[in-house]
Specification:
By secondary structure, the protein is α/β, with parallel strands linked by helices. The protein has helices at about 15-25, 45-55, 75-90, 105-110, 110-125, 165-170, 175-180, 210-220, 240-260; strands at about 5, 30-35, 60, 95-100, 125-130, 135, 140-145, 160-165, 185-190, 225-230. The radius of gyration is 17 Å and the shape is globular. The chain starts with a strand and ends in a 7-residue tail after the last helix. About 45% of the residues are buried.
Length: about 260
């Protein structure tokens, strides 16, 4: 049964511990841990203790492959993925979310597709490669910053992630991408975006990516992976505002994927 989870990145600048707290109090089914600069997110024992304390499972580990996490767990990208797999095994997660290499990581990129397949074979985990986007400058100029490609449907990955905010920057149709990926689509970062060069990660329904239609498409086609809310709440104004945005996001997912509406009480 598909779970509706919360990414710990959704509560930034609050930390990983706060992410578990919000997920439990609001009623999310699971948590995705974004391994980042927060020291707690880097420690298997701390992450495991948070899951046990709150009584909430961990659905996925997001490897530290963002620009600002380039030095987390060392500089070797394969080492980062191996440590992500170690954490996933320890906490009972079946998915590791990973971005494709940056174009300057040429050695890593050269063997990336084959290396991901080997990791899945040796670890028994799903390394769900996420869609990214061309970096857009002013006007119509863009730069291809990911290798072998920002669109995972162009490669032979067995497992993939679709992020609606990233698709917004790429000006891609997420339903068409899901159709291209078929059964290889195993993980969703539910959010929203507009025709902007910024990675907005809006509350779903506040952008123009057709998040509701996308969720209904997933339900109609029997999607059985994980759906994780990954939104930006830095502008929510307060903890109460952040909680309201996280609650609205969960209710949106349940309404349009499960066909249910949460009890406001």
């Amino acid at each position: 049964m598909t779970r509706i989870g919360l990414s710990t990145s959704s509560v930034y600048p609050e930390g990983t511990a706060a992410g578990f707290g919000y997920a439990k109090s609001i009623g999310y089914d699971a948590v995705e841990v974004m391994v980042g600069i927060d020291q707690t997110s880097q420690r298997i024992d701390a992450v495991k203790q948070l899951a046990e304390h709150h009584g909430i499972p961990i659905s996925a580990i997001h490897a530290p492959c963002l620009l600002f996490t380039q030095q987390v767990w060392g500089l070797d990208p394969w080492g980062k993925l191996n440590r992500s797999a170690e954490m996933a095994h320890a906490v009972g997660a079946e998915v590791v979310v990973v971005h494709p290499p940056f174009r300057w990581q040429r050695d890593y990129a050269a063997g990336f597709v084959e290396g991901i397949a080997r990791l899945e074979e040796t670890t028994g985990l799903m390394f769900a490669v996420e869609n990214m986007y061309p970096w857009r400058a002013t006007g119509k100029r863009s730069m291809q910053m990911y290798l072998p490609h920002w669109d995972p449907s162009t490669e032979s990955y067995a497992n993939t992630t679709v992020d609606l905010s990233h698709a917004a920057i790429a000006q891609d149709d997420v339903i068409a991408m899901a159709q291209r990926l078929g059964s290889r689509l195993r993980h969703i970062h539910l959010t929203d975006g507009t025709n902007s060069a910024k990675d907005e990660h809006l509350v779903p329904g506040r952008g123009d990516m057709g998040a509701a239609e996308f969720l209904r498409h997933l339900a109609d086609t029997g999607f059985a992976g994980e759906i994780v809310l990954e939104i930006n709440t830095r502008k929510s104004g307060s903890k109460d505002g952040r909680e309201a945005d996280l609650r609205e996001s969960l209710e949106f997912a349940r309404e349009h994927f499960l066909g249910t509406v949460s009890d406001p009480a």
